[in-house]
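A protein record pairs a chain with a discrete description of its three-dimensional fold. The following entry can be read in just this way.
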Amino acid sequence: MSGADDDGFAAFVAARGTSLLRVAYLACGDEREAEDLLQTALERTYRNWDRVRYDNPEPYLRRVIVNTSISRARRRAILRIIPMHTPPEPSERETDVDLRHVLMETLRALPPRQRAVIVLRYWEDLSEAQTAEILGCSTGTVKSQASKALAKLRVAIGQESLEGVIGNVHI
């Protein structure tokens, strides 16, 4: 890439980096993992910057973040299936009862695809069509995945709390 292309990419990252880090965090649920996820997505986007920069590069980058997060979650699930000589110690559940903490724990427990739909639809405030485009699926799939995920969230934290949190919390 030329110096002007590098400057354009750097300006884009400077302008949208914080928002994209939030998407990565919500997609994976871990701060360090989110930073690594964003770095991977930025690297892939940089390699395709000549093609991506003429359109709006943010949806492309969101899609890379979400797809990478789903792939990593699948790999971790496979590793959990493989028997270990000594199983790892289970993590202790924190005693913090803050609603945001409860929501994030519940969000992390959702399957990756459902978590991606919730993050894109409700935190990033994208339409069903935009979410479907990023995830590479139909709007019907987005609707059904959102419905299933919201039902799980409602059971875990309660109907009234969920509506207040999804409408008001921005991480």
Q: What stands out?
A: Residues 15 and 117 are 24 Å apart (CA to CA). DSSP finds nine helices and no strands in the chain. The mean pLDDT is 80.
